[in-house]
Design a protein that fits this description.
GO molecular function, one term: RNA-directed DNA polymerase activity
Keywords: Endonuclease, Hydrolase, Nuclease, Nucleotidyltransferase, RNA-directed DNA polymerase, Transferase
Protein name: Enzymatic polyprotein endonuclease reverse
Shape: globular
CATH class: Alpha Beta
Largest sheet: 5 strands, mixed
Strand order of the largest sheet: 3-2-1-4-5
InterPro entries: DNA/RNA_pol_sf, Retrovirus_Pol_polyprotein, RT_RNaseH
Low-confidence stretches: none
CATH architecture: 2-Layer Sandwich
Distance between the termini: 24 Å
Pfam family, one: RT_RNaseH
Number of helices: 5
CATH topology: Nucleotidyltransferase, domain 5
Radius of gyration: 14 Å
């Protein structure tokens, strides 16, 4: 098995943050799309705490986004970027008026960024 080849970030290209959550962990990939396909710049993951493991699926998926954006802040802050998730209700969540206090707090943490959430079936 060979190690994945990582791309150097190009701050003139748009960044993409792919996130995912499971029952026990969250993960993210920071990538950019040169001519052709996406090339990874960095990977990140962590185990969920016992309390976080009790979150609903939508909460875990949003936690993954908030955590990933904070983790990759040196790359994405001040630029327009895309967040890609396989959890379609997240798109609805960003358009609803009263999603719940925890989700509102997390949404507020993302307010300082210029991003677009895209659903990609997975």
């Amino acid at each position: 098995m060979t190690a994945p080849v990582l791309k150097y970030p190009d701050f003139n290209e748009e960044f993409k943050v792919n996130t995912d959550a499971s029952d026990y962990a969250i993960g993210a990939v920071l990538s950019q799309k040169p001519v052709g396909n996406n090339r990874p710049i960095a990977y990140a993951s962590r185990v969920l705490s016992r309390a976080e493991q009790n979150y609903k699926t939508t909460e875990k998926e949003l936690l993954a986004i908030v955590w990933a954006v904070k983790h990759f802040r040196p790359y994405v802050y001040g630029t327009k970027f895309k967040i890609i998730s396989d959890h379609k209700p997240l798109i609805w969540l960003f358009n609803v008026n009263d999603p719940g206090s925890r989700l509102i707090r997390w949404r507020l943490k993302l307010e300082e960024y210029d991003y677009e959430i895209i659903h990609k079936a997975g």
